[in-house]
Each structure stands twice: as C-alpha cells, then as structure tokens.
Amino acid sequence: MIACNVIRRSPYNLSSLGFARLKAAWQAYIIARRGERLNMKIYHLIPVFVFGACSIGVQAPDAQNTPEPSAYEPPSRTVFVAINGDDNQSGAKDRPWRHIQYAIDHAGPSAQIYVGPGIYTELITISGPMASGINAHPSLLKSDGAIIDGSGKTPANERGLITIENASHIVVTGFEIRNFSTPAGFSHDGFPKGIYIHGSGEDIEISHNRIHDIHENSTCTQNDNNCSSAANGIGIYGDTRTGLKNIKLIANEVFDNMLGASEALTLNGNISGFIVRDNFVHDNNNIGFDFIGYEDDVCLACTEPENRARNGIVQRNIARNNSIIHFGANPWYGGEDGNAAGFYVDGAHHIVFENNISTGNDLGMEIASEAPGGSSSDILVASNLIYNNFDIGIALGGYDANPNRPGGGSTARIKIINNTLYHNQGHSSELTLSYRISDLDFINNIISGKTTTDALYEAPDTNAGHVRMNWDHNLWWADTGRDGIPVPDANGLIADPQFTNIENGHARVNAGAPSIDAGISQSPITNWGDPFWQDHYPDGQIPVPGETDIDKMPRQNGPLDMGASEF
C-alpha cells in the first residue's frame, strides 16, 4: 500500500490546495522553467497527480530532517501579452499571449505580466492567491501603451474595467482605462468603475494610469425612490472584516467621468494604511478625492470603528474642476447648487493632507460626516493651496443642525496649519464652520478673499456646538474692504499677502511680504499610535506643518512663514 504524503519540496504548499489548484500551481511551475536547464538531483521530487484524495511523491533520504519552510518563494514568471498574440503560445516575449485575462489566469503567483500597445476590450479580474504575489515579489501588471476599453460592455452590479478582489501584493501600472458606461434611462443595477478594489488584501499599488469616461447615465435623482446612480474612476472599498491594508495610489490621472452620487477617487470602509500621492483628478461632475466611513452598505459585517477609512497620507495631489454644475450637469442633484469638494473627508480619521492643490471645484476641501452621530477626526491639513473654487475654500463640521438627520455628524481634533486660501468665495466664504466642531487649531494660514475680511468666515449664529477653537497667527486680507479679523485671532494680521502669481497657482510671496517669518512653530504630532505612522515618520513623529512647503522647499529652516509657501 502506498502512503499519501504531502509533497514538501515543491514550490507550493500543496496540502493547502484542492486538486484543480494543485494541478494549476504545478503547471505554472513547470511552464516557468520550460526551456531552462534544471540542475536537479535524482532525489528531487517527481510529483504524481491522482484523481483521488491525495498526491504522492518520492522524497529524498536526506530530506527527512529538512524543516518545512514557513512560506514559499514562488517562481516569479515573466510573460507578455500583445494585440497580435495567441493564447495557444507560450507567453514568451517572441510568442506573446493575446488576452490580459488569460495571462493573469495562467502565469501563476508573483508573475510579471507586460502588456503591449493596443486596445484591449476586456474586463479584467485579479483575484485570489494564484494571482497574488508575496511581499518580496509582488505580481506586476504593466502596460507599454495598452488601453483597456469598455466600449459596448454594460456594467452589471459593481464592476471595474480592472477589478482586484481578495488579492495581495499587486502592482497595476501604466494603463489607459476608458469608456465604461451604464445604459441611458431611469434605473439599472450597474455601478461602473475604472479600477475597483474590494474584499480582503494588502500591499496593492495603482500607479501611472489614466482613467476617463466612466459614465453613470441614469436620469434618476436623489429625490426619486428605488433607484441609484453612481460611478467611480478609482473605487476602493473595504467590505470585509479583514479589510484592505497598505494601499498606494501614485501618479494616476482621473478625468472626464460622470459620477452620479459617487466620486472620482474614493477610499471607503475598512481600509487602514494608504498613500495617495501625485494624482491629478480633474473635470469630473462630482467630488474629486473622498475618504469615507460609516456607510452601512459598504461592510455589513464590520463594526462601526472598522468601517472607516483611516491612517493615510494624501500628498502632492491636484483636484481641479470637479463640480456638480459647472462642468457638465449631474442629473442626480436635480440642478441644485454645487457642493462637490476637491478633497472630502466624510467619516474617516487619522489622515495627513499635505502639499495638495484644490482649484476650480465647488468647494476646495470639506471635513464633515454625513452619518448621524459620526465624526471625521484627527486630520492634519498642512501646506495646501486652495484657490479659485466656486463657493467655499474649507468647510468643517456636520452640515445639518439636527444631529439625528443626514449631515448630523461632527469633526474633532482638526489641525489646519500653514495653508493658503485665495478667492474661493461664491455666495459663501473662504472658511465655513457648520455644526459640532471640537478641538480646531487654525494657525499660520493666509486667507485672502474677494470682498471684505468680515466675509472671509461664516458660522451659525447660535447652537453651533463648537468647543475649543484655537485661532493664532493667521494673515487675513480682502480685495475691497478690511473691516477687522472675523475670528478671535489675537496674533492675526490684516495685510496684503503680496502674492507673486497666485492666479496661476503659485503660493509664493514677494520679498518683504508680511507673512515671512511671521508664523509660530508647531510641535509634531506624536499620539497617532497605529504602526503605519511609525513606518512613515521617524519615531512616529509627524512634523507640523510638514517637512517641506508646497514648492518642496524645506520648512524647518529658521522661523516659520505663514501660508503654504516658505520664502
């Protein structure tokens, strides 16, 4: 009788795989080495696959005392896809495959997949351990001029042109991703996305992609019942108890999308640890960047603390021309005034916003919580330029006076330090404080408006629920009237900031400007305890207002200036 043994010398832990996966794993291993000279001794394993409950192998006598490794290092395989390829070929550079999905399904873990120029009309799914990598060898899907085009395909439920689900250690880079639209009409079940990440996973990087023309074409509005209208350019949803960790969105461009009730780039739900850096999000008909918590339908199994995006760095991004009414009307809102922010925090916590630019949006930045009883908390907004937005520069707090209604949330422990706000007034103000704000530090900022200094600030007259509001060392200015500082800023200045070229997006000031060396130094943040902060800052100490200004010049070089730019 032949005993059944776990094959220990194969590159995969075969005992954890079913027969189909075991067979696919071994085939990937063999194919990866096809044509190579294998320097293998006779005692190396010769696997035998049996249509039964076990697999057997010949084990070397000297392997009896060899400890089983705690984790394998998979044979990283490099394959190629070309528009004139053939899936019956080997996938080598001179014999490329035809379809991206075929490569993902057959290349094995930690594969390096290179996709050549051309238009690929596929819906791509990266799912499970066979498409994942490991920390030292992430799976790579890299474009060399490839376009993924969804023209003619109808989104069903939540789907991306690229969907990553329950996968880890993934890099997707260099693609143009375009044309994925719902049908016209009142109601449908589609929620299209350019890139969609959900489930459980970690260490996923999306970089250097161009995502556009993802369209929600429903005519239903927020006042209709039993209909939905939503799309994302990039939609990342932590919809499991395990959630998503260590997500990187680097140097992507997201534009010309029709979003319905949703956002161009969003991180929502159980997501902990993310970097959003050097992205350009523009010309979309709703919010640009959104960081969300408390939405019950995102993670049904999550506790309330789990169901919040948290621990992230949002740095050197541009949000431009994201508006509900100014750049293509959004039917979901039925012609109401625009309230699309360039950057929006809706129930998330522990996020650094640094060196970003927000312009041409309905609102420059909003920190609030739509969920009754919810809160956006522990947010640092430092060295950002917020200018020429249509209505408001920065809005804070729950927007409804009743805490039990939508918009009844709050903000807590918000630091707004060394930012420049310029000409954001529409019918509102540069800075709008709504309801239930606690522990606000508003320090070293430049606020320069269109009309009078009294109109730079807006807040409810009574019952706002504000607690500990710290205003200090800000510069206030307005074009037509300087009638005093609108808040109790004992060390504030009323003075012309003397910008050099603010209308073209430069926060720099002239030599001799009153903001130079007029700021007050700030202590670093030291009490954000998640390991994420230890990984990204020495000893977990987050510098305030950051290591550099918006022009990447050093901040910590003598007395601080006011505003986003250090002279």
Q: Please, could you describe this protein's structure?
A:
This is DUF1565 domain-containing protein. GO terms for molecular function: carbon-oxygen lyase activity, acting on polysaccharides. Keywords: Secreted, Signal. The chain is mostly beta strands and 567 residues long. The chain folds into three domains: 14-63, no CATH class; 150-359, no CATH class; 362-449 and 460-567, no CATH class. 5% of the residues lie in helices and 35% in strands. It is built from three helices and 39 strands. Strands 1-2-5-8-11-14-17-20-23-26-29-32-35 form a 13-stranded parallel β-sheet, with helices on one face. β38 (499-501) and β39 (506-509) form a beta hairpin. The chain is globular and about 75 Å long. Mean pLDDT is 88; it is low at 1-72.
Question: What are the defining features of this structure?
Answer:
single chain, 567 residues, mainly beta, 3 domains, 13-stranded parallel sheet, 35% strand, globular, disordered N terminus
